[in-house]
Amino acid sequence: xxxxxxxxxxxxxxxxxxxxxxxxxxxxxxxxxxxxxxxxxxxxxxxxxxxxxxxxxxxxxxxxxxxxxxxxxxxxxxxxxxxxxxxxxxxxxxxxxxxxxxxxxxxxxxxxxxxxxxxxxxxxxxxxxxxxxxxxxxxxxxxxxxxxxx
Length: 150
Ligand SMILES: [Zn+2]
Known about the structure:
3 helices; 2 domains; elongated; binds zinc ion; 41% helix
């Protein structure tokens, strides 16, 4: 094939054509993957993968809330009455997250003296990821990591 440059001002035209050709080849490869390797794609459970990644995100949220609660206690001497008290403009927490799977608020419980707390994902929304009901959770005694309830 002979590519002639009709307009000498547009010297990048052949490069553009090659780039588009590469994109088309990549696109074709991407769409033909399930046909080339049907076993991998049939055995891969997309819904379960979503559940597991959502469980990880839920754990991360609870860990984040736990850390903010510990900082709050350091500063104020006790834990807050509710999670909204963690929100402030200059801090790392600008809003209270919700569980990515249940789309519900995290449950926060304290004793009357505000010296202990439990924060957890209420319900059995992470059953498919292998977790017990009302997990993941963290308490004021959680030192290393969130309890995942697996
Ligand atoms: Zn959750």
